[in-house]
Design brief:
Bound molecules: beta-D-galactopyranose
CATH topology of the largest domain: TIM Barrel
Number of domains: 4
Low-confidence stretches: 1-22, 728-736
Mean pLDDT: 93
Number of helices: 15
Strand content: 25-35%
Distance between the termini: 60 Å
Structural class: alpha+beta
CATH class of the largest domain: Alpha Beta
CATH architecture of the largest domain: Alpha-Beta Barrel
CATH superfamily of the largest domain: Glycosidases
Helix content: 10-25%
Length: about 850
């Protein structure tokens, strides 16, 4: 359906997101897009959460995002880290929000601040500080005075902090958008009459803070004016009902580039092609003008920041992986998509719009500008299984299954969401150091408290979170009782999360745990009782607090029922659920902070024994390896616990929680280089119930193995929009050249090896398949040609043409070029050193 646009808008030239030196103006919007300094904007945005990486990583993460065609960095704000106690704030180190936003500004792109302050985000307690739990009469996220008081207080604190540093675009800063609340619609109905007034209040409160930039409420289809409602999910081109007013732009706040992973779960793989399809569809079908990738860089849940059962690695499958390395082809394919869409900016923003069918499940979205030639078309093939040839404006186009072709001039296809011309990369690790001699380690077994030694007593099972106040994952539940005979029995423990380890008379008798989808667990294990006093000590462990759902303040965790049964039948010997219990919050090692240099001296460490014991602390040291490749500890030999390097927690690990095929959900744990000193780095590992520290290894990670593929149907890479702008007037819109393999090593590296190269008909899946083989047609000099073009260089480009390889190896057969190459650190003194 055609829409008549306001023609005067056409006079406004759509220019790049260059903000340095811009005259400050409020950011506004209309039905097409955000308007910054009077200019309409088509924006690509990427989520990077500042506490999930280190300040030292931020510049390179932001630079790689910018290079990938990202105009805006979007982040949540993490209330529970910033305000650990009411009125006490922390904005240091990884929490230095101002530094993060200023880094974005320094690199000339925009920022979007999702204050929440409830954020979900697989962040413990969804970002809420646990101390809120003790506020009398509080009901989170509802029309409840105590909650609203603290929420307003924190939101105001953040807004004022940003204002004081002139960080809003209305002040000349980079922040162009803010978010209040988060997907509230998901829980609103549960609050009955207390839901809708809270939405109105939150919107009014936020708008009243006068930031000079618009607010969004994601997934809140009735977001009150002037707050913009936006979409979250993987397919907003299909699911979004649209803005709730014709004067609001169509915004996608969370396009999930993969999904978070849980312990016991496997990584979620979402292809670059699928993401690109849905972005293009959103732009075309929903007239989207803002798409944010959640996450563009996921990073690491350091310390205890992850929510219930979530792995320490966060959205590793994002375009920038956990360590900040470029993940290909996702990063490159999306970069090309952004460039292709930006080529359509003028008709997209100012054009009239029509949508018509091109076939049974094919359609065209056409945006026609005022002047001739201002026309952009998106040709969509919705058929999930077959490719199809369609005719559009008298030309035919082949559309692979489930794909969209982008024609920035309604004639030339510059990009198709299913045709990947970007290079592929494969992650590999290099072993740097083993810790396999017992002399390298010292060990300390944490104390297993008996009832007598506990400081908190109660005649019932206490709720876990309300007892630990989230100061630790660990809570000891203990009781003792007298018997006048010895013998075997069975201990049964029912827990609502997340893990329980049981000790009877100081001996470990077993563990049980739940999972992300079913937190409850039952431990049922045989035990031997003494004639005389018996001590039972149960360690309840939480793996992060819940982060979603209504009434978070009412959630319970920890032990619910404890019984001892006869050894050979169900008969209850004694029910201890309502008994005299003694509690200890946390482990001794945590309390003494034996994971850092100073605390480490507070206990007596001993040599490592032969048998593995539960609740062991292990320590060793290692030197920092040379180079810049990210470092990881491979904890695949361990059970469950937490690890620290030089006193800084690199997060929880749980290598023994396997996915159905027997693999650990996560074995590699990131050690940021900024945590390290040149030598004698202190590594401390707390192991709850098993594991072999002698098999821990230190490794580097790289994405140095690359693959490039160009077939007849491949398109040549799109000139990035920024490059195009700087080359205005020159005909760079489309190279008009043949498809080619373009390869680029990670920064600071050069090609050291061509492991496979064939111009002919090698593996038909190109880089999608792992092991490449020659086909019936192969040009025997391919390798030589490719080596000459690439070895020793940081990037290279080889055209898929007969000319490149001298002669046609098989006339009449359609030929592709497939190359596997490896990069390694460049030795600047000796450029030939890269050649193997
Ligand atoms: C969304 C939520 C985000 C995050 C995401 C999944 O619903 O708004 O905070 O939790 O799901 O990663």
């Amino acid at each position: 359906m055609a829409i008549v646009i306001r023609w005067w808008l056409c006079c406004i030239v759509l220019v790049a997101a260059v903000i340095g030196g811009a005259v400050a103006d409020d950011v506004t919007y209309d039905g097409r897009s955000l308007i910054i300094n009077g200019e309409h904007q088509l924006l690509f945005s990427g989520s990077i959460h500042y506490p999930r990486s280190t300040p030292e990583m931020w510049p390179s993460l932001i630079a790689k995002a910018k290079e990938g065609g990202i105009d805006v960095i979007q982040t949540y704000v993490f209330w529970n880290q910033h305000e650990p106690k009411p009125g006490q704030y922390n904005f240091e180190g990884r929490l230095d929000l101002v530094r993060f936003i200023k880094e974005i500004q320094a690199q000339g792109i925009y920022a979007a601040l999702r204050i929440g302050p409830f954020v979900e985000a697989e962040w413990t307690y969804g970002g809420l500080p646990f101390w809120l739990h003790d506020v009398k009469g509080i009901v989170y996220r509802s029309d409840n005075e105590p909650f609203k008081f603290y929420m307003q207080n924190f939101t105001t604190k953040i807004v004022n902090l940003m204002k004081s540093e002139n960080l809003y675009a209305s002040q000349g800063g980079p922040i162009i958008l803010s978010q209040i609340e988060n997907e509230y619609k998901n829980v609103e109905a549960a609050f009955h009459a207390k839901g809708p007034p809270y939405v109105l209040w939150a919107a009014e409160m936020a708008v009243g803070l006068k930031t000079g930039v618009p607010w969004v409420m994601c997934k809140q289809d009735d977001a009150p004016d002037p707050v913009i409602n936006s979409c979250n999910g993987m397919s907003c081109g299909q699911t979004f009902a649209g803005p709730n007013s014709p004067n609001k732009p169509s915004i996608w706040t969370e396009n999930w580039t993969s999904f978070y992973q849980v312990f016991g779960g496997k990584p979620y793989i979402r292809s670059a092609q699928d993401i690109a399809f849905h972005v293009a569809l959103f732009i075309a079908a929903k007239k989207g003008s803002y798409v944010n990738y959640y996450m563009y860089h996921g990073g690491t849940n350091f310390g205890r920041t992850g929510s219930a059962y979530v792995t320490t690695s966060y959205y590793d499958q994002a375009p920038l992986d956990e360590y900040g390395l470029i993940r290909q082809p996702k990063w490159g394919h999306l970069k090309e998509l952004h460039a292709a869409i930006k080529l359509c900016s003028t008709p997209l923003i100012f054009g009239t719009y029509t949508n018509f069918s091109l076939g049974e499940s094919q359609e065209a979205y056409v945006f026609q500008g005022k002047s001739s030639g201002e026309c952009a078309a998106f040709l969509v093939n919705n058929n999930l299984s077959s490719s199809v040839t369609v005719t559009f404006q008298n030309k035919s186009y082949n559309l692979p299954r489930e794909s969209i072709s982008i024609l920035p001039d309604c004639q030339n296809e510059v990009f198709n969401t299913a045709k990947v011309s970007s290079q592929y990369s494969t992650r590999s690790t290099v072993l740097i150091e083993t810790f396999n001699s017992a002399e390298q380690w010292k060990a300390f077994q944490d104390v297993i408290p008996n009832y007598e030694e506990t400081s908190i007593k109660a005649d019932k099972l206490l709720e876990h979170m309300n007892t630990t106040k989230d100061k630790t994952d660990y809570l000891w539940y203990t009781f003792s009782f007298q018997r006048d005979s010895s013998g075997d029995k069975r201990l049964s423990v029912n827990s609502l999360g997340h893990v329980v380890h049981a000790f009877v008379n100081n001996l470990y008798v077993g563990s049980a745990h739940g999972s992300h989808d079913n937190v409850s667990s039952n431990l049922n294990t045989s035990i031997s009782l003494n004639n005389g006093m018996n001590n039972v000590s149960l360690l309840s462990v939480m793996v992060g607090l819940p982060d979603s759902g209504a009434y978070l303040e009412r959630r319970v965790a920890g032990l619910r029922r404890v019984r001892i049964h006869q050894s050979n039948n169900e008969a209850i010997f004694q029910d201890f659920t309502n008994y005299s219990w003694g509690y200890t919050v946390g482990l001794l090692g945590e309390q003494l902070q034996i994971y850092n240099d100073e605390g480490s001296d507070k206990v007596q460490w001993s040599n490592i024994g032969n048998s593995t014991q539960p609740l062991m602390w292990y320590k060793t040291t290692f030197d920092t390896p040379n180079g810049n490749d990210p470092l990881v500890l491979n904890l695949g030999s361990m059970g469950k616990g937490e690890a620290w390097v030089n006193g800084q927690s690199i997060g929880r690990y749980w290598a023994s929680f396997h996915i159905p095929n027997g693999d650990s959900s996560q074995t590699l744990y990131h050690v940021p280089r900024s945590f390290l000193i040149p030598s004698e780095n202190l590594l401390v590992v707390l192991e709850e119930f098993g594991g072999d520290p002698l098999q821990i290894t230190l490794e580097t990670v790289s994405n140095d193995k690359l693959c490039g593929y160009a077939s007849e149907s491949h398109l040549c890479p799109v000139t990035p929009w920024a490059e195009l702008m700087s080359n205005k007037g020159k005909n760079t819109r489309h190279h008009g050249r043949r498809p080619r393999v373009q390869l680029e090593c990670p920064s600071g590296k050069a090609f050291s090896k061509i492991s496979f190269a064939s111009f002919g008909n090698p593996s038909a899946d190109g880089c999608e398949s792992e092991n490449h083989v020659l086909g019936s047609c192969h040009s025997s000099n391919t390798k030589v040609v490719v080596e000459r073009a690439c070895l020793g260089k940081a990037d290279c480009s080889i055209t898929r043409s007969i000319r490149s390889f001298g002669k046609d190896p098989c006339p009449g057969i359609s030929k592709a070029l497939l190359v596997d190459a490896e990069c390694s650190s460049r030795n600047l003194d000796d450029p030939m050193s890269n050649l193997i």
